[in-house]
Amino acid sequence: MTPEELSAARDHIVPDVVAGGLRVLFCGINPSLMTAVTGHHFAHPGNRFWPVLHRSGFTPRQLRPPEQAELLGLGLGITNVVARATARADELGAEEFREGGAALTAKVELLAPQWLAVVGITAYRTAFGEPRARIGPQERTVGGAHVWALPNPSGLNAHWTVRSMADEYARLRDAVLTRPPTDRPAPGPPWAH
Q1: What backbone phi and psi angles, to 5 degrees, belong to 5?
Q2: Which of 25, 35, 68, 170 could bond to 113 as cystine, CB 3.0-4.6 Å?
Q3: What distance in Å separates the CA atoms of residue 150 and residue 87, rounded to the nearest whole number?
Q4: pTM of the shown model
Q5: Which sign, positive or negative, has the C-alpha torsion 68, 107, 189, 161?
């Protein structure tokens, strides 16, 4: 991938990997330039989303970014708080996060996932006006979905290791399996057995 290709991908929108009635809709902060070029979420080699998703038990094997559509068969999907691609998340302003939070709420209302898992506590705090939110389950719902704030899997987030992130993602997985869908029936994902 050339620097020119990456630069040309700035502000591009990457399509979501979504369907109605998912068990968990994972929500990134915004697409990286690598994601915008490839069209695959969490595509940067330093991003730890795919290994963490597998180690936490959500996927039967470690998927590669080009295999992202396989998530749908597992009752999982991917979207972002802010749709436009940037080189770094710190290029986004608070107003853009708040607008993204409103758009995300409408998307969740339409798609009706059981859980919304925001992968980035600062993005969650800003988008939904929850400055004291901590990693873990949230008391509020978004668009009718239960909410869990997860650590950002970016390689820049050195505070969290793959193991500690996988442990937190596994807590969400356990909650998904123990909290039955209320008015959102969906077939059980293969990882539930």
Answers
A1: -65, -45
A2: 25
A3: 21
A4: 0.91
A5: positive
Quick check: 129 and 102 in contact, CB under 8 A?
no
Closest to 138 (Cα-Cα) out of 151, 150, 156: 150
Q: Please list the alpha-helical segments (H only) found in 13-159.
A: 33-38, 49-55, 94-111, 121-128
Output the pLDDT for position 159.
84
Q: How far apart are CA 42 and CA 164, in angstroms?
A: 18
Helices 121-128/94-111 angle, 10° precision:
90
Tell me the chain's radius of gyration from C-alpha atoms. Answer: 15
Three-class SS of residue 86? strand
Confidence of residue 193 (pLDDT cuts 50, 70, 90): very low
What beta strand segments (E) does the chain contain? 24-28, 76-80, 115-119, 136-142, 145-150
- β-strands 24-28, 115-119 pairing: parallel
Residue 51, both tokens: 């290994």
At 180, is the pLDDT very low, low, confident or very high (cuts 50, 70, 90)?
A: low
